[in-house]
Amino acid sequence: MSRIRSSRTGAALTGPAVALATAALIASTSAVAPPAAADGPGSGDPWVVTLGDSYISGEAGRWAGSSNDDYHRADALGPSAYHDNASGTGETIPGCHRAESAEAYIGAGTRGLNLACSGAETATSTGSDFKPGIDFYDGSAGQGQALALQEAAATRNVSMVVVSIGGNDFDFAGIVQQCVVDFLTSPTWWKNYCHDDDSVEANFTSANVAAVRAEVAGALGNVATAMRNAGYDDSQWTLVVQTYPSPVPNGGGIRYSQSGYTRQFTGGCGLWNADANWANSTALPVINGALLGAASDVGLSNVRTLDMTHAFDGQRLCEEGVGLYEEVGLANWQSPGAVDSTEWVNQIRTVSTIGDSPYAVQESLHPNYWGQLAQRNCLRQVWNGGSPVSGSCVIGGLGATTLTATGEPRMTLGPLDQEVMSLGEK
């Protein structure tokens, strides 16, 4: 049975940047002692619980921007970044990558619990690489996230559950891999695009989209069942459905030429322009549409939406206007202006993960330290002092991004983007 981790302790932050360190300290101060015996549905401090996959678990949350010269320049949390067990010495479930910078720890009078897992699909995968889905699986390797939620909620006052799921049901990692392989193995004069490969197209047929939408609706229904089993009325908690952000700009906004290998080997964004355009115009809307449609299909009255579609626009991987530390002339992630000048999405890494490298392939194309903290800032605004609201989140003051007192990028939660929300109606 997997051990539930209620809060994070001791982030590996160094240096004098107190404002930045405060973001990690929110997690360590949110819950040090176990919950009181009387805590439970409607009683005790409110808890925020996050469920889902890598885009909410904290994957890539170790890295604040990127450097090809010296990884220390971007290493915000160090080698213990994903240690989430009770002693802080390792991972509760290997590979879940529940980072200290994950968005669950919003503070604001709440306590955080991160049950999400990098690589998770809607259903639990019980192979050699165990990945808990949002279901009630219970086995020797661990529990499904719905069951873990149910057990946690019985002794905690869970007031908000945030879910980001579905990307891996569309084979996100496989699509990224295919796109990079096609970029590296075809010449400029005879481009082999990934978006028309059979293996990629198979994920976006109407039948598969409908199937994933149903699977996500089932997962959201499992969340409601878990809460009811734990003794909650639907009016006592809020389900927040979180969409996925665009990780790369359209091809015309990528700062490296698509001629040669610089785009991948320097920038870590090995995609043809046409494939980058397709990712934003087709893949992301389909995936988010399935998630939003499922939120409607599940028929719950206590659902809110945190739309992250455009949250990283202007700070995406390889986007014009930001760069590697050596490109923007900053020493490291603690340098003044680093949050504004560097990327919020991690590089797609290949050979740089070989040997004793500190990098992991699974960190590729995920929100990094800045991105994770930006999502946390958005989620705190959704929490809204305990009266959760829906909204679309974007960078506040793009081009002059500042940090809040808690060390997070300052974000703006506005009205829901109706163009995005309409995707769930298709």
Describe, in plain words, how this protein is organized in 3D.
The chain contains twelve helices and seven strands. The chain is α/β, with parallel strands linked by helices and 426 residues long. It has one domain (18-425): Rossmann fold (3-Layer(aba) Sandwich). Strands 2-1-3-4-5-6-7 form a seven-stranded mixed β-sheet, with helices on both faces. Helix 3 (145-153) packs parallel to helix 6 (206-229) and helix 6 packs across helix 8. The longest helix is centred in the last third of the chain and has 25 residues, at 273-297. The protein is globular, with a radius of gyration of 20 Å. It starts with 17 loop residues before the first helix and ends in a 5-residue tail after the last helix. The model is unreliable at 1-6 and 9-32 (pLDDT under 50).
Write down the CATH topology. Rossmann fold
Tell me which CATH architecture applies here.
3-Layer(aba) Sandwich
Question: What fraction of the residues are assigned to beta strands by DSSP?
Answer: 5-15%
CATH superfamily: SGNH hydrolase
Number of domains: 1
User: Which blocks of ≥5 consecutive residues have pLDDT under 50?
Assistant: 1-6, 9-32
Structural class: alpha/beta
Give the overall silhouette.
globular
What is the number of helices? 12
Task: Give helix % range.
Answer: 25-40%
| Overall number of strands | 7
